[in-house]
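Subject: NAD(P)H-flavin reductase

B.,
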Amino acid sequence: MGEPETIVDTLADVGQLIRDRGSTLRSHVHERLFEAIPEARNIFSEDLAGAHVDLPRALAWVLERSLIDEPLDPALVKRLRELAKDHRRHGFPPDTYDLFGLLLGDAIAEVVGDDLPSERVNAAIALVGRVCSEMREAATNADEQGIAYANAAQVTSVEKPAYGVHVVQLEAGMPVEYVAGQQVPVRPTQCRGEWLNLSPAVPPNHFGQVEFHVPPEVPVEKGEYWTIGAARGNVTLDPERDALLVGIGTGLAAVKALVFDLLSQETTQDTRPQVHVIIAAQFPAALYEVSTFTALAASQEWLTVTPVVDHPDNPVAVSGDASGDADVTPVAFPVEKVVSGVGMFWGRQIVVSGPDDIVATVYRALREAGALASDIQTITPTGADQWPVPGSPD
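Prediction pasted inline below.
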Protein backbone atom coordinates (compact mmCIF):
# COMPACT_ATOMS: atom_id res chain seq x y z
CA MET A 1 0.00 0.00 0.00
CA GLY A 2 1.19 3.51 -0.75
CA GLU A 3 1.54 6.35 1.68
CA PRO A 4 -1.75 8.03 2.62
CA GLU A 5 -2.40 11.23 0.69
CA THR A 6 -1.74 14.40 2.64
CA ILE A 7 -4.61 16.85 2.36
CA VAL A 8 -3.57 20.50 2.61
CA ASP A 9 -6.54 22.32 4.13
CA THR A 10 -6.25 25.99 3.26
CA LEU A 11 -9.08 28.50 3.26
CA ALA A 12 -9.02 28.82 -0.52
CA ASP A 13 -12.78 28.27 -0.77
CA VAL A 14 -13.41 31.31 1.41
CA GLY A 15 -10.80 33.26 -0.54
CA GLN A 16 -12.44 32.50 -3.88
CA LEU A 17 -15.84 33.73 -2.71
CA ILE A 18 -14.25 36.91 -1.39
CA ARG A 19 -12.56 37.49 -4.76
CA ASP A 20 -15.93 37.01 -6.48
CA ARG A 21 -17.75 39.35 -4.09
CA GLY A 22 -15.03 41.92 -3.58
CA SER A 23 -17.10 45.04 -4.19
CA THR A 24 -19.73 43.89 -1.69
CA LEU A 25 -17.05 43.22 0.92
CA ARG A 26 -15.55 46.68 0.40
CA SER A 27 -18.95 48.32 0.82
CA HIS A 28 -19.57 46.50 4.10
CA VAL A 29 -16.12 47.40 5.43
CA HIS A 30 -16.47 51.07 4.48
CA GLU A 31 -19.92 51.36 6.03
CA ARG A 32 -18.69 50.00 9.36
CA LEU A 33 -15.35 51.82 9.29
CA PHE A 34 -16.93 55.22 8.75
CA GLU A 35 -19.47 54.55 11.49
CA ALA A 36 -16.70 53.64 13.93
CA ILE A 37 -14.22 56.33 12.82
CA PRO A 38 -16.12 59.15 11.05
CA GLU A 39 -12.94 61.14 10.37
CA ALA A 40 -11.59 58.22 8.32
CA ARG A 41 -13.95 59.28 5.51
CA ASN A 42 -11.81 62.37 4.92
CA ILE A 43 -8.74 60.44 3.75
CA PHE A 44 -10.58 58.88 0.81
CA SER A 45 -11.84 60.45 -2.40
CA GLU A 46 -15.49 61.51 -2.66
CA ASP A 47 -16.46 58.53 -4.82
CA LEU A 48 -14.30 56.02 -2.87
CA ALA A 49 -12.97 54.85 -6.24
CA GLY A 50 -9.48 54.10 -4.93
CA ALA A 51 -10.42 53.10 -1.39
CA HIS A 52 -9.32 49.60 -0.39
CA VAL A 53 -9.37 48.45 -4.01
CA ASP A 54 -6.92 45.63 -3.27
CA LEU A 55 -8.47 44.60 0.05
CA PRO A 56 -10.63 41.69 -1.23
CA ARG A 57 -7.82 40.30 -3.39
CA ALA A 58 -5.22 40.72 -0.64
CA LEU A 59 -7.49 39.01 1.88
CA ALA A 60 -8.19 36.18 -0.56
CA TRP A 61 -4.46 35.81 -1.25
CA VAL A 62 -3.77 35.35 2.47
CA LEU A 63 -6.62 32.86 2.93
CA GLU A 64 -5.52 30.82 -0.08
CA ARG A 65 -2.05 30.43 1.41
CA SER A 66 -2.93 29.79 5.05
CA LEU A 67 -3.60 26.51 6.82
CA ILE A 68 -6.34 26.14 9.40
CA ASP A 69 -5.03 26.09 12.98
CA GLU A 70 -1.43 26.45 11.80
CA PRO A 71 1.00 29.36 12.30
CA LEU A 72 1.18 31.88 9.49
CA ASP A 73 3.85 31.17 6.90
CA PRO A 74 7.03 33.21 7.68
CA ALA A 75 7.18 34.60 4.13
CA LEU A 76 3.55 35.69 4.41
CA VAL A 77 4.23 37.34 7.79
CA LYS A 78 7.16 39.25 6.32
CA ARG A 79 4.96 40.58 3.55
CA LEU A 80 2.19 41.56 5.97
CA ARG A 81 4.68 43.46 8.11
CA GLU A 82 5.99 45.38 5.10
CA LEU A 83 2.42 46.19 4.13
CA ALA A 84 1.69 47.48 7.62
CA LYS A 85 4.69 49.79 7.50
CA ASP A 86 3.55 51.06 4.10
CA HIS A 87 0.01 51.72 5.34
CA ARG A 88 1.29 53.99 8.11
CA ARG A 89 1.17 56.79 5.51
CA HIS A 90 -2.62 56.90 5.99
CA GLY A 91 -2.13 58.25 9.51
CA PHE A 92 -4.03 55.69 11.61
CA PRO A 93 -2.48 54.61 14.95
CA PRO A 94 -1.38 50.95 15.17
CA ASP A 95 -4.23 49.90 17.49
CA THR A 96 -6.68 50.68 14.67
CA TYR A 97 -5.79 47.23 13.32
CA ASP A 98 -7.68 45.65 16.24
CA LEU A 99 -10.85 47.47 15.27
CA PHE A 100 -10.30 46.85 11.57
CA GLY A 101 -9.91 43.13 12.22
CA LEU A 102 -13.30 43.03 13.95
CA LEU A 103 -14.95 45.04 11.16
CA LEU A 104 -13.42 42.84 8.48
CA GLY A 105 -14.50 39.70 10.32
CA ASP A 106 -18.08 40.98 10.47
CA ALA A 107 -17.96 41.77 6.75
CA ILE A 108 -16.71 38.27 5.92
CA ALA A 109 -19.56 36.72 7.90
CA GLU A 110 -22.14 38.84 6.07
CA VAL A 111 -20.72 38.40 2.58
CA VAL A 112 -19.95 34.66 2.55
CA GLY A 113 -21.51 33.32 5.76
CA ASP A 114 -24.65 31.94 4.13
CA ASP A 115 -22.76 29.94 1.50
CA LEU A 116 -20.08 28.13 3.49
CA PRO A 117 -19.98 25.93 6.60
CA SER A 118 -19.76 28.01 9.76
CA GLU A 119 -16.47 26.37 10.77
CA ARG A 120 -14.87 27.58 7.52
CA VAL A 121 -16.13 31.12 7.99
CA ASN A 122 -15.08 31.18 11.65
CA ALA A 123 -11.62 29.91 10.73
CA ALA A 124 -11.28 32.74 8.20
CA ILE A 125 -12.38 35.32 10.77
CA ALA A 126 -9.88 33.95 13.29
CA LEU A 127 -7.13 34.14 10.68
CA VAL A 128 -8.00 37.78 9.98
CA GLY A 129 -7.53 38.49 13.68
CA ARG A 130 -4.05 36.97 13.61
CA VAL A 131 -3.16 38.90 10.45
CA CYS A 132 -4.24 42.21 11.97
CA SER A 133 -2.26 41.44 15.13
CA GLU A 134 0.88 40.93 13.06
CA MET A 135 0.29 44.20 11.22
CA ARG A 136 -0.41 46.11 14.43
CA GLU A 137 2.86 44.84 15.90
CA ALA A 138 4.82 45.81 12.78
CA ALA A 139 3.34 49.32 12.74
CA THR A 140 4.04 49.73 16.46
CA ASN A 141 7.65 48.64 16.04
CA ALA A 142 8.13 51.09 13.17
CA ASP A 143 6.74 53.91 15.33
CA GLU A 144 9.01 52.99 18.23
CA GLN A 145 12.04 52.91 15.92
CA GLY A 146 11.26 56.41 14.71
CA ILE A 147 10.76 55.35 11.08
CA ALA A 148 8.97 58.13 9.22
CA TYR A 149 5.53 57.04 8.07
CA ALA A 150 5.87 59.27 5.00
CA ASN A 151 7.75 62.27 3.61
CA ALA A 152 6.25 65.68 2.91
CA ALA A 153 7.94 67.25 -0.11
CA GLN A 154 7.38 70.75 -1.45
CA VAL A 155 6.93 71.32 -5.17
CA THR A 156 9.75 73.65 -6.27
CA SER A 157 9.12 73.69 -10.01
CA VAL A 158 6.72 72.41 -12.66
CA GLU A 159 7.86 72.17 -16.27
CA LYS A 160 6.02 71.14 -19.45
CA PRO A 161 8.78 69.74 -21.67
CA ALA A 162 6.48 67.98 -24.12
CA TYR A 163 2.87 67.26 -24.94
CA GLY A 164 1.21 65.19 -22.21
CA VAL A 165 4.06 65.47 -19.70
CA HIS A 166 4.67 67.56 -16.61
CA VAL A 167 8.03 67.28 -14.84
CA VAL A 168 7.60 68.04 -11.15
CA GLN A 169 10.61 68.82 -8.94
CA LEU A 170 10.21 68.52 -5.16
CA GLU A 171 12.34 68.90 -2.03
CA ALA A 172 11.64 66.94 1.15
CA GLY A 173 14.37 68.50 3.29
CA MET A 174 15.55 65.04 4.30
CA PRO A 175 16.50 61.91 2.35
CA VAL A 176 13.63 60.00 0.74
CA GLU A 177 14.42 56.29 0.92
CA TYR A 178 14.17 54.34 -2.33
CA VAL A 179 16.46 52.87 -4.96
CA ALA A 180 16.52 53.67 -8.66
CA GLY A 181 13.84 51.65 -10.45
CA GLN A 182 11.47 51.52 -7.48
CA GLN A 183 8.11 53.26 -7.24
CA VAL A 184 6.63 55.25 -4.38
CA PRO A 185 2.99 56.00 -3.52
CA VAL A 186 2.44 59.74 -3.89
CA ARG A 187 -0.55 61.81 -2.81
CA PRO A 188 -0.66 65.21 -4.51
CA THR A 189 -2.20 67.99 -2.44
CA GLN A 190 -5.14 68.47 -4.79
CA CYS A 191 -5.95 64.75 -5.10
CA ARG A 192 -7.95 63.96 -1.99
CA GLY A 193 -7.54 60.35 -1.00
CA GLU A 194 -5.81 59.43 -4.26
CA TRP A 195 -2.37 57.83 -4.23
CA LEU A 196 -0.39 57.65 -7.45
CA ASN A 197 2.23 54.99 -8.06
CA LEU A 198 5.16 57.04 -9.40
CA SER A 199 8.78 56.31 -10.25
CA PRO A 200 11.33 58.86 -9.04
CA ALA A 201 13.28 60.11 -12.06
CA VAL A 202 16.53 60.68 -10.16
CA PRO A 203 18.51 58.39 -7.85
CA PRO A 204 18.07 59.01 -4.11
CA ASN A 205 20.19 61.77 -2.63
CA HIS A 206 21.06 63.30 0.74
CA PHE A 207 19.11 66.49 0.01
CA GLY A 208 15.69 64.87 -0.40
CA GLN A 209 15.34 66.17 -3.95
CA VAL A 210 12.86 64.16 -6.00
CA GLU A 211 11.58 64.39 -9.56
CA PHE A 212 8.36 62.90 -10.91
CA HIS A 213 6.95 62.79 -14.45
CA VAL A 214 3.16 62.97 -14.50
CA PRO A 215 0.41 63.44 -17.09
CA PRO A 216 -1.21 66.90 -17.20
CA GLU A 217 -4.43 65.67 -15.59
CA VAL A 218 -2.56 65.46 -12.27
CA PRO A 219 -3.17 68.89 -10.70
CA VAL A 220 -0.04 70.55 -9.34
CA GLU A 221 1.05 74.02 -8.27
CA LYS A 222 4.45 75.29 -7.25
CA GLY A 223 4.75 75.64 -3.48
CA GLU A 224 2.27 72.94 -2.49
CA TYR A 225 3.26 69.80 -0.60
CA TRP A 226 2.97 66.21 -1.78
CA THR A 227 3.06 63.19 0.52
CA ILE A 228 5.45 60.36 -0.41
CA GLY A 229 5.07 56.90 1.11
CA ALA A 230 7.38 53.90 1.42
CA ALA A 231 9.10 52.63 -1.73
CA ARG A 232 8.00 49.41 -3.39
CA GLY A 233 9.13 47.20 -6.25
CA ASN A 234 12.35 45.32 -6.88
CA VAL A 235 13.47 46.29 -10.39
CA THR A 236 17.25 46.28 -10.39
CA LEU A 237 20.06 46.13 -12.93
CA ASP A 238 22.94 43.69 -12.92
CA PRO A 239 25.94 46.06 -13.27
CA GLU A 240 27.84 43.40 -15.22
CA ARG A 241 25.25 42.74 -17.95
CA ASP A 242 24.34 44.74 -21.04
CA ALA A 243 20.90 46.30 -20.78
CA LEU A 244 18.00 47.46 -22.92
CA LEU A 245 15.94 50.12 -21.14
CA VAL A 246 12.63 51.19 -22.68
CA GLY A 247 10.87 54.32 -21.41
CA ILE A 248 7.41 54.90 -22.89
CA GLY A 249 5.77 58.26 -22.18
CA THR A 250 6.18 59.22 -18.53
CA GLY A 251 7.64 55.75 -18.00
CA LEU A 252 10.90 57.41 -18.97
CA ALA A 253 11.21 58.55 -15.34
CA ALA A 254 12.29 55.12 -14.09
CA VAL A 255 14.70 54.68 -17.00
CA LYS A 256 16.29 58.06 -16.27
CA ALA A 257 16.83 57.12 -12.63
CA LEU A 258 18.42 53.79 -13.61
CA VAL A 259 20.78 55.41 -16.13
CA PHE A 260 21.92 58.14 -13.76
CA ASP A 261 22.36 55.55 -11.02
CA LEU A 262 24.66 53.58 -13.33
CA LEU A 263 26.51 56.80 -14.12
CA SER A 264 27.16 57.41 -10.42
CA GLN A 265 28.74 54.00 -9.88
CA GLU A 266 32.51 54.00 -9.69
CA THR A 267 33.91 52.11 -12.64
CA THR A 268 35.77 52.78 -15.87
CA GLN A 269 34.39 53.19 -19.36
CA ASP A 270 36.02 49.92 -20.40
CA THR A 271 34.31 47.87 -17.69
CA ARG A 272 30.81 49.31 -17.96
CA PRO A 273 28.20 47.17 -19.69
CA GLN A 274 26.55 48.53 -22.83
CA VAL A 275 23.20 50.21 -22.22
CA HIS A 276 20.70 50.99 -24.99
CA VAL A 277 17.91 53.39 -24.05
CA ILE A 278 14.72 53.55 -26.11
CA ILE A 279 12.69 56.74 -25.54
CA ALA A 280 9.22 56.15 -26.96
CA ALA A 281 6.15 58.31 -27.51
CA GLN A 282 3.14 58.42 -29.80
CA PHE A 283 4.41 61.35 -31.87
CA PRO A 284 7.38 63.79 -31.90
CA ALA A 285 5.74 66.51 -29.77
CA ALA A 286 5.35 63.97 -26.95
CA LEU A 287 9.07 63.15 -26.83
CA TYR A 288 11.13 64.73 -24.08
CA GLU A 289 14.55 64.37 -22.40
CA VAL A 290 15.98 63.13 -25.70
CA SER A 291 18.50 65.98 -25.85
CA THR A 292 19.59 65.22 -22.29
CA PHE A 293 20.17 61.56 -23.06
CA THR A 294 21.89 62.15 -26.40
CA ALA A 295 24.26 64.68 -24.80
CA LEU A 296 25.05 62.14 -22.11
CA ALA A 297 25.59 59.41 -24.70
CA ALA A 298 28.04 61.65 -26.56
CA SER A 299 30.33 61.56 -23.52
CA GLN A 300 29.65 57.99 -22.41
CA GLU A 301 30.74 55.23 -24.79
CA TRP A 302 28.61 52.64 -23.00
CA LEU A 303 25.33 54.48 -23.67
CA THR A 304 23.23 54.44 -26.85
CA VAL A 305 19.95 56.34 -27.23
CA THR A 306 17.18 55.82 -29.79
CA PRO A 307 14.01 57.96 -29.84
CA VAL A 308 10.98 56.17 -31.28
CA VAL A 309 7.48 57.37 -32.23
CA ASP A 310 4.42 55.51 -33.46
CA HIS A 311 3.51 58.34 -35.83
CA PRO A 312 6.03 60.66 -37.58
CA ASP A 313 3.69 63.66 -37.62
CA ASN A 314 2.04 65.49 -34.74
CA PRO A 315 -1.77 65.49 -34.67
CA VAL A 316 -3.47 68.77 -35.48
CA ALA A 317 -4.97 68.91 -31.99
CA VAL A 318 -1.56 69.18 -30.31
CA SER A 319 -1.08 72.70 -28.99
CA GLY A 320 2.11 74.58 -29.73
CA ASP A 321 3.15 75.18 -26.12
CA ALA A 322 4.95 71.83 -25.92
CA SER A 323 6.87 70.84 -29.03
CA GLY A 324 9.04 68.14 -27.48
CA ASP A 325 12.63 67.69 -28.64
CA ALA A 326 12.12 69.42 -31.96
CA ASP A 327 15.73 68.99 -33.13
CA VAL A 328 15.63 65.21 -32.87
CA THR A 329 14.52 62.96 -35.73
CA PRO A 330 13.03 59.82 -34.18
CA VAL A 331 12.54 56.38 -35.64
CA ALA A 332 8.91 56.19 -36.81
CA PHE A 333 7.94 52.60 -36.05
CA PRO A 334 5.85 50.89 -33.34
CA VAL A 335 7.96 50.59 -30.22
CA GLU A 336 7.18 46.89 -29.74
CA LYS A 337 8.60 46.13 -33.19
CA VAL A 338 11.71 48.20 -32.59
CA VAL A 339 12.42 46.62 -29.22
CA SER A 340 11.82 43.05 -30.42
CA GLY A 341 13.84 43.50 -33.60
CA VAL A 342 16.85 41.43 -34.59
CA GLY A 343 19.80 42.03 -32.28
CA MET A 344 18.04 44.56 -30.05
CA PHE A 345 17.56 42.42 -26.96
CA TRP A 346 19.91 39.48 -27.50
CA GLY A 347 21.93 38.76 -24.38
CA ARG A 348 20.58 41.81 -22.58
CA GLN A 349 18.62 42.37 -19.41
CA ILE A 350 15.50 44.34 -20.29
CA VAL A 351 13.43 46.92 -18.40
CA VAL A 352 10.21 48.24 -19.94
CA SER A 353 8.54 51.18 -18.18
CA GLY A 354 5.34 52.91 -19.23
CA PRO A 355 1.53 52.59 -19.46
CA ASP A 356 0.12 49.16 -18.59
CA ASP A 357 -1.33 48.37 -22.00
CA ILE A 358 1.72 49.38 -24.03
CA VAL A 359 4.13 47.65 -21.66
CA ALA A 360 2.05 44.47 -21.99
CA THR A 361 2.26 44.74 -25.79
CA VAL A 362 6.03 45.20 -25.70
CA TYR A 363 6.40 42.30 -23.27
CA ARG A 364 4.43 39.97 -25.56
CA ALA A 365 6.46 41.04 -28.58
CA LEU A 366 9.71 40.36 -26.74
CA ARG A 367 8.57 36.92 -25.61
CA GLU A 368 7.36 36.01 -29.10
CA ALA A 369 10.75 37.09 -30.46
CA GLY A 370 12.53 34.74 -28.06
CA ALA A 371 13.40 36.90 -25.05
CA LEU A 372 13.44 35.02 -21.76
CA ALA A 373 10.81 36.00 -19.20
CA SER A 374 13.56 36.03 -16.57
CA ASP A 375 15.38 38.75 -18.54
CA ILE A 376 12.39 41.13 -18.66
CA GLN A 377 11.35 43.48 -15.85
CA THR A 378 8.37 45.81 -16.19
CA ILE A 379 7.31 49.01 -14.44
CA THR A 380 3.73 50.28 -14.82
CA PRO A 381 1.40 52.64 -12.92
CA THR A 382 -0.55 49.74 -11.45
CA GLY A 383 2.57 47.70 -10.73
CA ALA A 384 2.82 43.94 -10.76
CA ASP A 385 -0.12 41.85 -9.57
CA GLN A 386 0.61 41.62 -5.86
CA TRP A 387 -2.24 39.24 -5.07
CA PRO A 388 -2.38 36.57 -7.81
CA VAL A 389 -4.84 33.70 -7.79
CA PRO A 390 -3.50 30.24 -6.89
CA GLY A 391 -1.45 28.74 -9.67
CA SER A 392 -0.20 32.11 -10.92
CA PRO A 393 3.45 33.06 -10.35
CA ASP A 394 3.75 35.14 -7.17
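Residues 3-7 have pLDDT under 50 and may be disordered.

T.
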